[in-house]
């Protein structure tokens, strides 16, 4: 336990350290977003109920498992080895006993079925995901809900969970219609890597497994390397399996006006080892906006059993949009009636691409077709076939001469959490970096700040920084950057923001004209006012969560305004420490975040579920919301959600681990091709989240005494273990008047001394605290009054007094002895 501060509420509040809701203060960068590669063990668990009989035999299920294995091998160009283990159980309860479950409410079926399967000899060792298949098609559709952790007899662990049913007319050799099963397995793979269950075009494309084609291949955009698609620094908002197509296989066209290029594309499903041709074309428009093109042929992953048409698919991407991918259909420009969407008697089912090219899922672009984007002066023409590929010509004249202000959004490399490398905090409580202080979590080798930089210091000044870049090709003039904090503090993202300051050219001349390709680093001062209940103060760091964001109005000539509108240009605040050492004992850390059902966006009660991605050591334990799987909030209701982590064993100082908790609701979706069939998909919609970073630290202690000498308050203390040259904050609180803060440096022995405050005959209470480092915990002293000493030793120069006293006693003893 760190020393508890015994003082008044006002003085306690002066040392409370604000923490970010989702900061991840890592010592090393994390890898870029990537799809699952190598082996992935999936249990296909068919569940029978007394009131529902199976449609498929065990032999058919085994055949379907082999087909799914082959299909995902083709989809990933051999990079994924999906091992599907078939198991089947019968439950004593009827389907109706589970109240027609949807979403996470179906988890009890998974747990009951897994327990029965384990009792029957099924091993779940090494299994990463479970796909529950309901026998007899009790409901259409399926869902994927993230990881679930449970312990039942014979089975214990954390598993990605999905469900589906035995529905649909069989079209595959096995006689099993497993297209929806493959779709939900795809969501499992996304969620396994910490990404949301993305649909590249939100179901509009009938040529993507993760949209509305069950099963078929994926678009070049969905499979492309994240580093190729993330012009805004994000991992790509709709990337499905990033990296299954390497960067070298995507051709990026020139942005120069008047440029023209012809590229021969191989089919996107072609094996990487079978062709050296490009598999996709990226056509940049502006920052975060581009076209992605690919050729689709009825082969490999696009032949299960067949795609609707063959040709070129064009998808327009806007990374800042809520729906990033929008297919560009030829019927909208080449057919007199345009594309017909939704149920319409002119689009009978079934139909072919040649007989009804204006009906969903729409024909592709064919030889001699040309798409023209007049606004951006881009033309995309489909040329002749080259083997099973097609020649595609892109000519362009992108408008030039526009600025584009940009702040890297959160959930981007190198952290992928709810933070950004372009926003950070510099606390006065350990000295501003510009004045020689050091950020607690430091910087990476490339100069970017790790985590929040510093923990914000409550009731003391902090500088909130933002790095603003101009990605355009013209200067950004007279930029004004607005900094805001969530209001009220401690609520996470409540939907309400309070301005804490504006950086303008008067204070930061660089904002007067940021050149093309240039940047400006600006800050505002922020003193968060926090009142703390003394009973809830556990140590020098207090679990208090908030969120910061920056935004700016568009500057003259700017066309892309989403890059600095405050939506995603945010930094959430929180972390906790884990004692490091050689002991094997357990240590508990508790934090909390706040979840709110905003009254302005929800007029009804909403149930929130918890999705947990634990990257903690195997022998650690965690608990979210006291073990509850979900909570229901009324409109406008806000609730604190506790998170408890128990660490065990040896931990090295400086190491870090994390626990990501996402609170989500379940959305109901009906893909376009199934509007008449009753097919429904249930998917999580993340409403908020927290990433707790556990930082391995060695426990630090501080001792201090205060005295009155020559009309001044004299403070002497020591930091143990000694850290030379670090900054300690000393707060002097008079009985009446404002608290005075001093920043005092330590010497090589960790000692500090300050005598800068006049006593003025008043009563004083003094407190010292230290922010800590990435290897040492934060620390605080007890509150002391001048003339009293804190227990635990005699710091400062008292040892000199003791030594002199010992010398005097020795001399007296020697004198008395010599006189005998």
Provide an overview of this structure.
With 820 residues, the chain is mainly β. The chain contains eight helices and 40 strands. The strands form nine sheets. Strands 2, 3, 4, 5, 6, 26, 28, 30, 32 and 33 form a ten-stranded mixed β-sheet that branches. Strands 1, 20, 21, 24 and 25 form a five-stranded mixed β-sheet that branches. β36 (727-734) and β37 form a beta hairpin. The longest helix has 22 residues, at 798-819. Residues 1-32, 532-543, 580-584 and 789-796 have low confidence and may be disordered.
Tell me briefly what this model is.
With 820 residues, this protein is mainly beta. Helices cover 10% and strands 35% of the residues.
Give the key terms.
mainly beta; about 800 residues; five-stranded mixed β-sheet; about 10% helix; ten-stranded mixed β-sheet
**Which stretches of 5+ consecutive residues score pLDDT under 50?**
1-32, 532-543, 580-584, 789-796
| Beginning-to-end CA distance, first to last residue | 55 Å
- Radius of gyration, rounded? 31 Å
Largest sheet: 10 strands, mixed
Return the average pLDDT rounded to an integer: 81
Question: Topology of this protein?
Answer:
Layout: H1 9-13, E1 19-20, E2 38-48, H2 58-75, E3 80-90, H3 107-119, E4 129-134, E5 142-152, E6 155-165, H4 179-192, H5 220-223, H6 226-229, E7 250-252, E8 260-265, E9 280-286, E10 289-296, E11 311-318, E12 325-327, H7 331-334, E13 370-373, E14 378-386, E15 389-396, E16 405-406, E17 423-427, E18 462-470, E19 476-477, E20 481-486, E21 497-503, E22 513-514, E23 519-526, E24 545-551, E25 570-573, E26 576-579, E27 586-596, E28 606-614, E29 621-624, E30 630-633, E31 638-648, E32 656-669, E33 681-697, E34 701-709, E35 712-720, E36 727-734, E37 740-745, E38 751-758, E39 764-770, E40 779-780, H8 798-819
Parallel strand pairs: 1-24, 2-3, 2-4, 4-6, 5-33, 7-9, 26-33
Antiparallel strand pairs: 5-6, 8-15, 9-10, 10-11, 11-12, 13-14, 14-15, 16-18, 17-18, 18-23, 19-22, 20-21, 20-24, 24-25, 27-31, 28-30, 28-32, 29-31, 32-33, 34-35, 35-38, 36-37, 36-39, 39-40
